């Protein structure tokens, strides 16, 4: 049997054809990962591997030789046989790894197709769906069902790597949220956050249909407004602020009033590290975070941004407030610790 397709008999300089799965032990052969060598040793498996024929021969085959198609077909059949054995024992995860290796070999070019048993195909499809659902859930905030910080980090890395244009981002924080929890209880506070997410999504959908909302932490959220100009991003956030202020919160609790403050800025592509180069959000969002502080310290229920000349301004209804420049000088560039004040 050939193991993991991407390692044995691969042409020098060609990309691996399978995923980075953990080593699989079958009979007397340990199937290596992409950076390992095949190891022949004592039997490590507790089940019969007699259906898997030609394992040692497949390991020695050169998939880049003159009979490359037939060689890969032999290797693919070996993977398929391993998948069947593992599937018979209910080890669907390792069966899935071998089946993916077989499929990758077939897709290389002139490799004759391999037969995949229907039961194995169904189980592999089920496993693929389960893995996709688990991946989705790992990127969702359990309370609000919006995206979480992990998803935000991944998307910012992807956006920074795929475009030369600036990406507009806002940080939105609920004003006096601690008072909401203290007055009405945490269950009401949770309802406020869920309703807020709905209002923000509605505010994003029209002007920035490719944008998204992610919970940044606590009562703070990040809005990524992909494709929006700086002016449109400010207008979108001001619209969301007004929508939150005007919402009928009494449906959640009598006399409840909720407002939000926001900072809006554009992240240059070079300011966002590429994927795998660390957490992109702390450094990349520092300037946006400063603008959020300005909105808070100038009276809350406001959206702060920088105009074309770099001056800090407040949008919409809050634009006439005084002292914005002095607050901006005190906040921007000054070291701070902790989270944004209520």
Walkthrough of the structure:
About 45% of the residues lie in helices and about 15% in strands. It has about 350 residues and is an alpha+beta fold. The protein has two domains: about 25-140, no CATH class; about 150-330, Alpha-Beta Plaits (2-Layer Sandwich), CATH 3.30.70.270. Strands 5-6-4-7-8-9 form a six-stranded mixed beta sheet, with helices on both faces. A hairpin with a 2-residue loop joins strand 5 and strand 6. Helix 3 crosses helix 4. The longest helix has 21 residues, at about 70-90. The chain is elongated, with a radius of gyration of 28 Å.
Comma- or semicolon-separated keywords:
342 residues, Alpha-Beta Plaits, three-stranded antiparallel beta sheet, 13% strand, elongated, disordered N terminus
């Amino acid at each position: 049997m050939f193991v993991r397709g991407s390692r044995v008999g691969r042409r020098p300089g060609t990309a691996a054809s399978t995923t980075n799965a953990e080593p699989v032990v079958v009979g007397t052969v340990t199937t290596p990962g992409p950076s390992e060598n095949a190891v022949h040793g004592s039997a490590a498996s507790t089940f019969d591997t007699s259906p898997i024929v030609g394992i040692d021969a497949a390991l020695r085959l050169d998939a880049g030789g003159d009979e490359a198609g037939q060689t890969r077909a032999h290797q693919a059949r070996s993977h398929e046989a391993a998948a069947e054995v593992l599937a018979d024992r209910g080890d669907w995860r390792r069966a899935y790894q071998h089946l993916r290796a077989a499929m990758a070999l077939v897709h290389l070019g002139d490799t004759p197709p391999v037969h995949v048993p229907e039961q194995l195909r169904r189980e592999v499809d089920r496993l693929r769906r389960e893995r996709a659902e688990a991946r989705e859930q790992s990127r969702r905030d359990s309370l609000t069902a919006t995206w979480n910080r992990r998803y935000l980090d991944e998307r910012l890395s992807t956006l920074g790597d795929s475009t030369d244009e600036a990406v507009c981002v806002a940080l939105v924080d609920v004003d006096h949220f601690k008072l909401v929890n203290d007055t009405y209880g945490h269950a009401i506070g949770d309802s406020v956050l869920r309703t807020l997410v709905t209002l923000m999504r509605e505010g994003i959908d029209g002007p920035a249909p490719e944008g998204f909302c992610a919970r940044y932490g606590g009562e703070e959220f990040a809005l990524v407004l992909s494709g929006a100009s700086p002016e449109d991003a400010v207008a979108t956030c001001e619209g969301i602020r007004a929508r939150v202020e005007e919402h009928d919160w009494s449906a959640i609790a009598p006399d409840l009033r909720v407002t939000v403050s926001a900072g809006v800025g554009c992240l240059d592509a070079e300011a966002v590290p590429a994927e795998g180069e660390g957490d992109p959000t702390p450094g990349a969002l520092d300037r946006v975070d400063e603008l959020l502080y300005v909105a808070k310290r100038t009276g809350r229920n406001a959206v702060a941004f920088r105009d074309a000349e770099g001056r800090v301004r407040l949008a919409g209804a809050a634009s006439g407030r005084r002292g914005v420049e002095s607050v901006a000088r005190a906040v921007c560039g000054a070291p701070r610790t902790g989270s944004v004040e209520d």
